[in-house]
Design a protein that fits this description.
about 230 residues; alpha/beta; Alpha/beta knot; Trp Operon Repressor, Chain A; binds adenine
């Protein structure tokens, strides 16, 4: 998969692409990530990318031209163009599983008070990572990339993500490691005695209990409950 990220703040992505699993996925050629500064596509003096809103109001608005030109510079027939915005469709694991199937994602990071409404004509999908407002779309872009990249074959072990929270609309089961007793807090006996069938049953039941207690809304969605 190739991912092009269009942003005014390319340096924000330095840590993201140069550490841990994402770095390894790039080195292993499982993904390519290009960070594109769309300021470079401004034809105005001083590379201006925003202006005051028509009709008045606070703040500056991102202009169409640099963003649309930047999209056009990388777009081809396989591309899906995504805009990060609090007004977008709610992002979740099932959207991540869908995005995983694309060959090429272009993610446009919004900024400041907003962007010219006409930019929407040049994107395929608008995504929000939650009902709160961030200062810009860079963190949402990283959230989307990270959650999609870890699903790509070869990036992490497949069983790791098949058991993730939200797969089958259930939260993940609890896990433990050594020691078996930490300050009187004991690892459940069933996990220690090595009976795989019992362990599987225990984990399924814990998933159900957890989801019921913490996220009953997920069970309402029905496909997942066993
Ligand atoms: N930009 C600012 N806030 C956002 C959010 N919650 N989701 C996606 N993009 C955003």
């Amino acid at each position: 998969m190739r991912i092009d990220i269009l942003t005014l703040f390319p340096k924000m992505f330095d840590g993201f692409i140069n550490e841990s699993i994402i770095k390894r996925a790039i080195e292993n050629k499982l993904i390519t990530i290009n960070i594109i500064d769309f300021r470079e596509f401004s034809s105005l003096k001083h590379k201006q990318v925003d202006d005051t809103p028509y009709g008045g109001g606070a703040g500056m608005v991102l202009m169409c031209e640099p963003i649309v030109k930047a999209i056009e510079s990388v777009k081809d027939d396989d591309s899906l163009v995504i805009l990060t915005t609090p007004q977008g469709k709610s992002y979740n694991q099932s959207v991540a599983l869908d995005l995983k199937n694309y060959k090429h994602l272009i993610i446009v990071c919004g900024h400041y008070e907003g962007y010219d409404e006409r930019i929407r004509n040049f994107v395929d999908l608008e995504l929000s990572i939650g009902d709160y407002v961030l200062t810009g779309g860079e963190i949402p872009a990283m959230v989307i990339c990270d959650s999609v990249i870890r699903l790509i074959d070869g990036v992490i072990k497949k069983d790791s993500y098949m058991e993730d929270s939200f797969t089958d609309n259930l939260l993940d089961y609890p896990t433990y490691t050594k020691p078996a007793d930490f300050r009187g807090l004991k690892v459940p006996e069933v996990l220690i005695n090595g009976n795989h069938k019992l362990i599987e049953e225990y984990r399924k039941e814990e998933q159900r209990k957890r989801t019921e207690e913490r996220r009953p809304d997920l069970l309402g969605d029905k496909d997942g409950k066993d």
